[in-house]
């Protein structure tokens, strides 16, 4: 054949315009999130960005996000899990019974609960992966089963309160080991005593952690850019790279500052942050994650490429079960009791978050960051509309339309490209 | 008789970043069979999509005149209304509906939305008779073979009062016998005055039935020739832009010791466990040797390969596999790959590629450990590997980040080959490695095969095209009804001898069955 030009190594540098276009799609979600935040910031007369409210949003959505991480794997693999809400509720009840009724050590109980989640995920995963029963059916059955078991173990009562150590999971903040930093002295009243809620005292540890994270982020971004360049592969224009990273760093620092001016980082945010980072790493850099995408894209081709598709599916559901259990712990710790209605309907919020975040219902497509942002978009809408005093009925309607709109936008974008 | 039924003038169609068609001209005479040929990715299918309205008027430049009038189709419905019907390469039948239901899909024989099943049956029987298919219209499409399904598609086209029938590679997945029947049918339609346009790669078919040929290359119409001027060489020359003196690159075989051996291999059908699909096969491949497996469709070639490769086909598999003279466990794909075996599938879209992911991820997926350390992928190493193989197998794409589904067939095949080359096997089984790809890309694939053999790998090629096997193999096994019925060295092999082995094998098989019953 006529010889074609050399492959894309050191090919034409991506133009500024092209980089904008590609990144606009990639960061479209971030922009949507920012737009929604600004919108509600205005509509709620500035309540949304109050440090206490931001902290609240994190607490309210933590268990959704934890489960969305697992759900992303499930959906990318081409499956669905309808049982996560019921499993979370059930595990919360088990935790309550172990800690409150039997007085078990919270750490041991927590560990047992997550192990139980793994077993539950494993059982469902066994039917899905090895018996080839559609995940929709298996997990629908699982939802009914665990809803029933939840009612059964609680036999109608609510169990609580939890030991203080366990409550820290959802209600605690990281200790300020460095010590508070007084930025603005509080106003004093006539008697010379400080008026509450005036002045700014920063949680220094939170601020330091925030700065370290931003530095690490910038370091890795620069390193990967250098790597590409030194191997002769094209990178995005430098100006664009700088602006993009500065904006991201700015947003992160802003949020950290907000947390620092309240009580610091909530414990659950730390747990979440570590999990998010872990799952980004798994999906982007690990062979395990790559194989999930390959399987979701074409399961037959994946199997013929030597991927143990059945085992992989099984593990995905085990992971989902563990995350559902962790979410159940966070949820019950937040309520400080286990109730018979716990977890009901959570699975739909989780699935919605993943789809708003750009995952494809056909499998093979989806990002962890997308799912997290999707969860925050839904969470902030909940919070914002709540603060605005919009009725729950209209909240549901609006959320439904946002879900549909997000997916329509995605499909439209894909067809255009 | 020689009036023009269809004329397309200066058709230009641009996709973002690519000019798929550039000033293409096409004139089709009434009552002709007009063949369009060109390499994969040359723009044939795009042209047909412009013609049939899949790409609506306004999304391309140029004019289409049909029956003397300018056409501005906005969709398939518009083109079907005037009698232009296209049958796509991938059949558009619903497997779990009956033949009759499929024929009238979208054109149901109904009054006020209530289907009149008697009309459906009567009319579909008529149509089936016209296309020479003896099947009950109530039979589910999934229960008939690909050849018959193709006929159902044609019956469906006939039900729409077709005047201009367009067939996109109608024989690509048919056996020789079914292809012949189909070509005869087209000739019959021609005798009845229908005009057809046929896209095809198979030069012998074109020579047999076409009245005129238009060759398209790189999105441009190169030339249109009449039947009298058609020669294989001329078609090939204008398709690739230069003459290919030899369609098979030459090679001096350096054959070493036996690298791969299968002994007493037997396999039963996965759904009908009483049916033996592979019957006691023994074969071997030596280092640096290219060995072919010839046989008709359904002879069990793919079934044999897949049962060896990780037991991905069949039940109750027995027999032994030897790699490098040692007994090898190939009971899972992972073990087979680890043992140095690779199998490149005949159906790259279904079994070979993740079509929604890009080239880079497809190339490395069978050997992720090769670009990772303790489960963590080294991005740069992966990129390097992908670029290396892209260059090595000459994949034509904008970069390794191009989505596999957007590549032409030949380039997709090269991605599949790259994937297996990166897994670094000693022994490759290539199942129909050149199916549905153009002459130029075929040559490139043969070159790759030769290079692999020269590197000392063993290669087993399964192909339905006998000239191809004769052109590239050192030795050919003939497989028929699950049994090896002949083994020929390349210098003594010929199409005739292979066919004779098959026929003789079938006769013997019948004898055996008679004896058994």
UniProtKB/TrEMBL annotation, chain A:
Pfam families: BPD_transp_2. It comes from the Bacteria. InterPro entries: ABC_transp_permease (IPR001851). One of its GO terms (cellular component) is plasma membrane. One of its GO terms (molecular function) is transmembrane transporter activity. CDD domains: TM_PBP1_transp_AraH_like. The chain crosses the membrane at residues 27-50, 57-76, 82-100, 107-127, 133-153, 165-185, 200-222, 238-259, 265-283, 312-331, 351-378. It is found in: Cell membrane. It is a multi-pass membrane protein. Keywords: Cell inner membrane, Cell membrane, Membrane, Sugar transport, Transmembrane, Transmembrane helix, Transport. Its main location: membrane. Part of the binding-protein-dependent transport system for D-xylose. Probably responsible for the translocation of the substrate across the membrane. This is Xylose transport system permease protein XylH. It comes from Mesorhizobium zhangyense.
Automatic annotation (TrEMBL), chain B:
It holds the Pfam family ABC_tran. One of its GO terms (molecular function) is ATP hydrolysis activity. Its main location: membrane. It is a peripheral membrane protein. Residues 6-243, 262-506 form the ABC transporter domain. Gene3D superfamilies: P-loop containing nucleotide triphosphate hydrolases (3.40.50.300). It comes from the Bacteria. GO terms for cellular component: plasma membrane. Keywords: ATP-binding, Cell membrane, Membrane, Nucleotide-binding, Repeat, Sugar transport, Translocase, Transport. SMART domains: AAA. It is found in: Cell membrane. Belongs to the ABC transporter superfamily. This is ATP-binding cassette domain-containing protein. It comes from Mesorhizobium zhangyense.
